[in-house]
Amino acid sequence: MNISEIQFAHRFDGITGSAIREIFKLIAQPNMISFAGGNPSPAALPDEKVAELAAQVLRDKGKVLLQYGATEGYAPFVESLKQYAEAAVGCPLPAVLPVTGSTQAMDLLCKALIDPGDTVLVENPSFLGNLQCMKFYQANLVPVESDENGLLLDKLEEAMAKHHPKLLYVIPTFQNPTGKTLAAERRRPIAELAAKYGVVVAEDDPYRDLRYSGTPAPSIKSFDKEGWVAFLGSFSKIISPGLRVGYIAGDAAIVRKCTLGKQSTDVHTANLNQAIVDQFLRQGLLPEHIRRICGDYRLQRDAMLEELASFPAGTSYTRPDGGLFIWVTLPEGLDAKQLLEKAIERHVAFVPGTHFYANGGHENTLRLNFSNSTLEQIHTGMAALRQVIEASL
Amino acid sequence: MNISEIQFAHRFDGITGSAIREIFKLIAQPNMISFAGGNPSPAALPDEKVAELAAQVLRDKGKVLLQYGATEGYAPFVESLKQYAEAAVGCPLPAVLPVTGSTQAMDLLCKALIDPGDTVLVENPSFLGNLQCMKFYQANLVPVESDENGLLLDKLEEAMAKHHPKLLYVIPTFQNPTGKTLAAERRRPIAELAAKYGVVVAEDDPYRDLRYSGTPAPSIKSFDKEGWVAFLGSFSKIISPGLRVGYIAGDAAIVRKCTLGKQSTDVHTANLNQAIVDQFLRQGLLPEHIRRICGDYRLQRDAMLEELASFPAGTSYTRPDGGLFIWVTLPEGLDAKQLLEKAIERHVAFVPGTHFYANGGHENTLRLNFSNSTLEQIHTGMAALRQVIEASL
C-alpha cells in the first residue's frame, strides 16, 4: 500500500497549517523589522548567567541531573518553585508541577479534562497557540465577549449556563494578543462563577511580572475557594523561552491527573533546565533581572505608543500596562492581511488580528509586538507602517 | 460545586496508577539493591563532558539557545542528527524530528494516528511506559505472540489481516522487558507486511548501540520501501536520560504530523539540550563513550547470568546480547509479586513480569536490570534472590 493512503487521526481534521508560521517564513530575511513574534528581546536573555548556573549545577549535581528524574519534578526546584509561585499567585497552592514550558501545562490540562466535543470558553481574540492545542483535543471553542477591561461577567455566566463548558481559558494580565488586563473587580466573580457552574479555569499568566505602569491585580486563583482554578505559569518571558520551563499549580487532583498525563508525554522535564531555573529562584536573581527587562520594555512600549498617536484618524489601539503586545483596530474596511503584504515590501511585519479569533473575522485588526525591536527599529518600522496604512485609505 | 465533582476526560478511565511506580516507592530506602529500574549506571553518565559542552555552547550561541526555537529542531542538531540517524538506521531518512525524549516520539506518533478504538499491535510482553501512552489514546491493544527470536511472522500477519491495526509497536533490539532481539531474517518481512496491510510500524530502538556480543541486525526501517516504518531513537541510554533528547525519523508526511502535534505540546525541545547532544555528535565523542559503557555493562550482564546459572531447576532466562534487561521465567506456580515482597525484606528489588503484559497473567515471570548495580551488588543481590526463590519452592 502506498504511504499516501495513510489515514491520520481525526484530531487533525480541523488543523490547518499555522498562518503565523507562514508569515514567519515570509519575513525571514535580513533588514526586516518584525513586530510579528512574541519573542523576548535578545538583551533580556541572561546568557552569561545561565552559563554560570549551568556550570555550577552540573558540577554540584551532575550525576543526578543526567539521570532519570521524577515526573513530579526535580525535588529542589519543586520546593523553590512552590515558594515562588505562592508569592506570585498570592495564595497557598496545594500542588505545583514543573512542565516543559507552559504550552505543556495547557496540553496536560486538556488531556486531563477534554473529551471530543466538550466545550471550552475562550476570550475573543485569544492566544493562537493554545487555541490550536484545544482544537487537537477536538474541543468545541465558544468565544466570550470582552470590553476594554476583559471578559464581560454577564456574557460569561450566560455562556456557562448555556454551554456547560469543561474549561474557561483566560489570560488575565496583558493578554495575548490585545495587551488588555482583566479588571481586578471581575476576578473574584470569575472564581465564584467557576465554582457555581463547576468549570475549571485555566488562568494563563505568563506576562504577570512584565508590568511597566499601573497597579498589579490579584490573581483569579487567589479568590478560588474550591479549587476550580488552575494557574499556568512560565519562565519563558522572564528568563528564557528556549529552556522550556513552566508550571501548573492548583488543586491536587487536577495536578495529579496532569502528572499521570505527563508521564506518558515526556516522562519529566529535563533536570538541567529545572536546576538552572531553581538557581535563579534560590539565589534571588529574578527581581533585579525583571526590573532591568521592564525598564527596557517600558521604553519600547512608549516609543510604539508615541508612533501610534500619529496614525490616521479612526485608528484605535490598546495602551497596555505591561506585557509584549499592542492591539490595533484600523478604520473599517481596511484589511490587515492585505496591508501586511505591502508592509513586508517596506520591511515591516506584524500579525493580522483575524488569526486570533476562534471564528475569524475582524479583518481590520492587527497585533504589534514591541519587545523584540530596538527603539530605532520601532520608530522606523512604525513610520513605514503608518505610510502603508495612509496609502490604503 | 465541590471540586470532588470534577469530571476528568474518559481517556483516564483505563489508567490505573503505575504498579512500577508503587514498587519504586517501596524500594526507595538505603541499602536496597535494585534490579527494578531501567536507569543507566551513574558511571555511564558523562557529567564532566556535559558540563564542558554546556559551557561551550552557551558561550558560543547563548542568545540563540535561550530564545524560542523552531518546532522542527535546532538547525545544527537537525543536521548532525540526520547524519547520525542515517548511519544508525542504515538508510536515507526523508525527515528527522528532535523530540523531548523518545517517549514523546511515541506520544506524537499516537497523536498523529490513533483515534479512540483504533487497534495497535504490541509485543507481549512490552514496554510498560509506551503501553500506557497508547492507552491514553484509547487504543485497542492487541498482543502478538513471540518466540525467542521475537515476533512470529505468521501470527503477525494473522493479526494484521484480522484487526486492521493502525500501528505495530515493536522494540527489535534487546527488547524491554525481555532482552530478546528480533531475528535479522524477520525484519524484511515485517517491513513488507506493514506495506501490504498499510500499518505504520513504530520501530523503537533505544538499546541498539548497547551491544556486548553477537552481530548487529539491520533495522526494520532499512527494508522499508514505502515509508510505513517510523524509527524512534533516543540518547537516554547512551548519553543521558535526564537531558530528554530523542528523535523520530521516517516518512515526511508522518514526521510533519508529529511536528504539528509537537507545536501544541511543548513548542520545541529545549535548545540547550539539543545543542549539547549536537556537540557529542559533531565532536565524534559517542563511539568511544559507548565503547566504555558497553565494556562495563558486559561485565554486569555476565555477572548476572553467572548467578542465574545456579538458580533452582525449572528456572529459565534470556541471554541478551546487549541492552539493560534479563527476563526470568520461574517454575510454574511461583508468583513474582509475592516473591518481591520477600525480596524487599532482603533488600533486593525487581519488577514482576505480569505488569508488562497487555492482558496481565504470566505471574511466574520477572524482569532484572543489570546496568544500575555494581558487580558486588549483582552477586550479593542475586544470591539473596536465589534464596528467596528456593525458600518458596
- H and E string of chain A: HEHHEHEHEEEHEHEEEHHHEEHEEEH
Query: Mean pLDDT across all residues of chain A, rounded?
Result: 96
How would you describe the oligomerization state of the chains in this entry? homodimer
The CATH class name of the largest domain in chain A reads: Alpha Beta
Give the number of DSSP strands of chain A. Answer: 15
Largest β-sheet summary of chain A? 7 strands, mixed
**What would the principal axes of the Cα set say about the shape of chain A?**
globular
CATH topology of the largest domain in chain A: Aspartate Aminotransferase, domain 2
| Strand portion of chain A | 5-15%
Jot down its keywords.
Aspartate Aminotransferase, domain 2, homodimer, seven-stranded mixed beta sheet, four-stranded antiparallel beta sheet, 12 helices, globular, alpha/beta, 2 domains, 15 strands, 41% helix, 393 residues, Aspartate Aminotransferase, domain 1, 15% strand
Write a short abstract of this structure.
By secondary structure, chain A is α/β, with parallel strands linked by helices.
Q: Which helices and strands, and how do they pair?
A:
The structure is a homodimer of 393-residue chains.
Chain A: H1 19-27, E1 33-34, H2 47-66, H3 75-89, E2 95-99, H4 102-113, E3 119-123, H5 128-136, E4 140-144, E5 146-147, E6 150-151, H6 153-163, E7 167-170, H7 187-197, E8 200-204, E9 229-234, E10 246-250, H8 252-263, H9 271-282, H10 286-308, E11 316-317, E12 325-329, H11 336-345, E13 348-349, E14 351-352, E15 365-369, H12 375-392
Parallel strand pairs in A: 1-13, 3-4, 3-7, 7-8, 8-9
Antiparallel strand pairs in A: 2-10, 5-6, 9-10, 11-12, 12-15, 14-15
Helix pairs in contact in A: 2-9, 3-9, 4-5, 4-8, 6-7, 10-12
